[in-house]
Design a protein that fits this description.
single chain; alpha+beta; Sulfite Oxidase, Chain A, domain 2; Immunoglobulin-like; five-stranded mixed β-sheet; 6 helices; globular
Amino acid sequence: MSEGTRGEARRGEIEEILERKPGTREARDEEDRYTVVGAANRRTFADWLTPIEEHFVCHRNDVPDADAETWELRVTGVDDEKSISMAALREEYPTVAVAHTMECAGNNRGQHDPETGSVQWGWEAVANAMWSGTPVRAVLEDCGVDVNDDSERWLTAVGGDVPADDDVYVKSIPLAKALDDCVLADEMNGRTLPVEHGYPVRLVVPGWYGTNSVKWVEELRITDTMVTDATFADEEDGRTYTYWQHGAYRIHPADAEPDIEETVPTADTWDQLVGDVEHPYTFDENVMSLIGKPDGENPVTPDANGRVEIRGVAWAGDDEVTRVEISTDDGESWRDADLYGPNYSGAWRLFTHTWKPNPEAEGTVTLLSRATDERGRTQPASIEVLDDWPEIPEDVYPWNEGGYAANAYRPNGVEVRVSSRRDE
């Protein structure tokens, strides 16, 4: 398919998605390579469950012409290799549901200065949904995998989407994570998985960046390492299988060329960044928060008691959010918000804070939120270009060429106009 034809197809796909998802808007993609829509309004982040109609979408490759009646999932690299139909996946294995805050690893990329390439997301590429399907653990155990094996093997997932170039969408995650809580999902928020979210089946990796949750998954392969050039050498199809694991979604300074690594000492993204991994992989999500209400689009008027409710969401990947702080004076002072609502591993928490604006003042106020996880890690204030990556300042997130895994709180602040006039 020529670039012109591919661009036309992508344009049509985006328009169809926007029609089905009235709560989203198209994201800016300077290179016109991705199908991308994100939440259209901050109010999405004032509730725990994200409607499908407001859930972001991001993919580059062409959506396969999938049919659940004929789709098969291959399990390889095991003692008992199998091809499993969708009917068998639903009927012969247990069904579970997991809550998962899906965040694009490039969320907040548009806050980088100088601007990076690719999709210029603001805060809109994150959502929280319920995903239902078959536990990966049940499938692998049925195929002869020792689920109690503590060896450091990997699960390598292959997407069935049609490569835009020759790069097949392949991602590797630690086998231990796959056996813990990963799901082969065929439903989303109680509905059949939409095609743009991976119909007929998607690997869902709770608490980890969305790049790991392979859509349209057609093969699961047990490997001793992350995917390397040798992993699919027997295919002899002229395609490449390592780009999405090792070339894309790596955190590094400008002009660096990350090597293909066989393993990493930790899947914790932040620990890789401040530790010994030269070009970190984007696995679990960094601690993050967003204010959803007020949304900044309309002025706020205090109630009869002079109060305004601030509400939002906070998440921290595999870790638990233990604290959210709110500033109503552009970071000069901070007060604790209250965490409430559902508390599921891998899903965001709701927070709320009662604010009493100065009754004598009218004008624009900048509201900020910052979250802290159970390991004491707090969102940094800003994204900055650093000369020395091993010495990352405590309140800074490093500018990186891909614009990945940023979690600074100041760029996500919301300007709110406060009015003392009440509607009659």
